[in-house]
Amino acid sequence: MSLAPPERAPATATPAGRGTPTHTGRTRPGRRRLLTRDSVPYLLIMPAVLGFAIFKAYPIADSLWISLTTGNGDDRHFTGLANYQRLLDDPLFWTALKNTALILVVQVPLMLGLALLVALGLNSTKVWLRPLWRLGVFVPSLTGLVAAGVMFSVILNRDAGLLNWVLSAFGIDRVNWLGSPFWARVGVVLVITWHYTGYNAVMYLAGLQGIPNELYEAAMVDGAGPIRRFAAITLPQLRPILLLTVVLSTIGTLQLFDEPYVLTGGGPDNATMTVTMYLYNNGFKYFDFGYASALAYALALIVSVLGILQVRLMGERR
Amino acid sequence: MPHRLSRRQLLQLVTASAAGLGLAACGSNGSGSGAGGDGDSGQITVWSWTTAAKALRAVVPSFERDNPGIKVDIQDVGEPAIWDKITVGLASGGKGLADVLHIGVDYLPGYLEKFPDGLADLSKLGADQYKGAFAQGLWPTVIGEDKAAHALPWEVNPLGLFYRQDYFEKAGVDPADISSWDDLIAAGPKILSATGAQLLGLDKPGTTQDMDFFQNLMQLQGAFYFDHDGKVTLASPAAVQALTVIKRLNDGGLLADIAGQGTWKRLVSQGKLATSPDPAWAVEYLATKFPDQSGKWRVMQPPAAVPGGGRSAIVNSTYLAVSASSKRRRAAWRFIEYALTKPAEINRMFTSGGVFPALSAAYTDPKFSAPHPFYGDQKVLKSFVDSLGSGSDATNFTGDYTRALKLASDAQSQVLLKGADPAGALKDAAKQLAQQTGRQQAA
User: Fold this and answer.
1) Could you say which of A268, A283, B352, B360 is the most buried, measured as most Cβ atoms within 10 Å of its Cβ?
2) Domain containing A71: what range?
């Protein structure tokens, strides 16, 4: 079943200015046919476009409107940029932004560095049982976010948790993981790193396997050592994937919600409050949907700016 | 090729399904809110949680027998999941909500304020005749801005102090001598050195935002985050006094940290806590969770937050309401009325789910003056009923309770973890609360 053969087109659905004049274009006068070579692709993407329009575009547009209003239930009235103004004066918003930035700056490089090391290990032909290791590395990212959070809240429990029990076996004092601002942040970083390192490692692994062996062989002939080969071949060849993981991880971290929600509830004293958690609180706990929508747009703006910057800085130079 | 779909047919299929999707979207957009009806029969669904849902199920057989034509489906939605479900339902104009909703006093004023058309007007259905039937202070909480009732009180939780009689005895502390938290703070070190048990547990980093103890200490002084005009009182002398009591307990080493899942339960079962200030529902909770500690616990009226101050407080209360979008509002109201205003039914729920009734007529039942074996045959329920009779006022939770809760929890964490000064921490919190909510601070 092929698409319309070339000799039948163009039909009436052809955009004006293309093809032959209309009065000669009709093969069967009086019947407008929708199915042409030009229209079929549109029809094929229609379900996806409709789904996007209803479940994404409409909420996105509507929340822009809501962010410019205030009020309860259906009784909303326009307030202009008041919600955005309030955002700038809200100390908790800045705290949340600071926390998110802190986690971003510390966690993303840590995780991606770790993932790269793991990928190099998994790519080595000297490692036995590679499929098993690969599976083991990837499995954490299959765990549900909330399940991971609940599991770690048990592991990090101060008095009965596994981690403190292990630490005490080495004579290290119990750490108040979720009860002190510093350690709570470390706890959140720990959970995200556990959860996503394997995922990124698998992406790097795919990238590593795409690097032609000839490059390494040539370099070895030229006398390049392993570190030189890593810096001069592996890293540049991985650049597109590195960029992808950095952008994805940045977006993911900026939208961080589940782990601190389950683990710390944003505490203690807002040490792990993220922008998305603050957004959730405003919308679904305080019913302040106007302000929550403004937060969402502020976050979207930050994500886009950071994303563009990263692509500019790390992308292919032309 | 007879079975192959022609391109024209395929096209028609795609257009048809696309049109269907579009129509469906229009349909759900077009119908708006308040599309409920006053149906008097059919199936009604009820959202509640855990033991309360269990309690409601106990009423269903007799209700369905007395009200042929109405079937009741009780759903245990879980708590706190139920709040998100109700919030989303109300925010989308009542779509997908159950007919009857079980709502706590911490959420009810918020719903009434933010979604004035979300919960059905029960005064129209005859609720006002029960105005005087419930424990004092509860009726004002069900009234919306339209002066109509939008819920009926079900559960009320007067505060009590549960304590380990054996520990007090061992430390030579006479419970009768304890009349304020000052007395208890003085007795704490004796109990600690004699038994190794701290006085009570608190979630110090505020992971769960359980601020009941701080609230109780304010409620004992007749105060709360807001006064009755809705002004912010989070920095009032009563609030500062409440947080100071907590700070002194902490500084004296009498406060255990119960952050983390199951920590409180573990500490109690290990005998590491000598008291637990808890509402009435804890009577059965303690008895069923720690059966091996039978005979060791007693209950007294809560100590006053200031020497010589009041010793009764209503911790919280819960309600049943009808969603305005229900197609069977009358049937739903009949179920609520049946379950909550008949002493026999409400006491049946008390027995099966441990929900302490708000209905005053329920207290004449002999079970409220019966000795309880877990508490060494003390008449524990009677002490709670007496406490209700001593006239504690209702607390004004307002629609901004959750914001106040969050800021108070932060202030408490600052005091307990970073050694902040209670007055200073509360002053900052009150200022933020006023800023966020547009409310004034009380003078």
Assistant:
1) A268
2) 35-84
What's the CATH class of domain B42-157+315-373?
A: alpha beta
Which of A19, A50, A84 is where one domain is finished? Answer: A84
The whole-model pTM stands at 0.77
Q: Determine, for residues A286 and B8 on separate chains, whether the beta-carbon distance falls below 8 Å.
A: no
CA A232 to chain CA centroid, Å, is 29
In a shared domain, residues A150 and A255: yes
| Nearest-CB residue to B209 (from A43, A153, A265) | A265
Which residue does chain A place closest to B33, by CA atoms? A74
Could you tell me which of A295, A262, A249, A288 has the C-alpha nearest to residue A96? Answer: A295
* Tokens found for residue B304: 């006053």
Distance from CA of A228 to the nearest CA of B (A): 49
Smallest CA-to-CA distance from A46 within B377, B20, B165, B203 is with B20
Do A56 and A103 fall into the same domain?
no
The answer to whether A236 and A218 are in contact (CB under 8 A) is no
Q: How many structural domains compose chain A?
A: 2
Query: Distance between CA B53 and CA B73 in Å, rounded?
Result: 10
pLDDT, tens digit (0-9, with 9 covering 90-100), for A205-259: 999 999 998 999 999 898 888 889 898 899 999 988 999 999 999 999 998 998 8
Conformational region of residue A235, where left means phi above 0, alpha means psi within -120 to 50, and beta covers everything else: alpha
A3 part of a folded domain: no
pLDDT, tens digit, 9 for 90 and up, residues B334-352:
999 999 999 999 998 888 8
Which option is the CATH number for B159-314+391-437: 3.40.190.10, 1.10.468.10, 3.50.50.60, 3.40.1390.10? 3.40.190.10
Sort out which chain B residues have CB atoms less than 8 A from A46's CB and list them.
14, 18
Cβ neighbours, 10 Å, residue A86: 18
Instruction: Determine whether the interchain pair B205/A289 forms a contact, defined as Cβ–Cβ distance below 8 Å.
Output: no
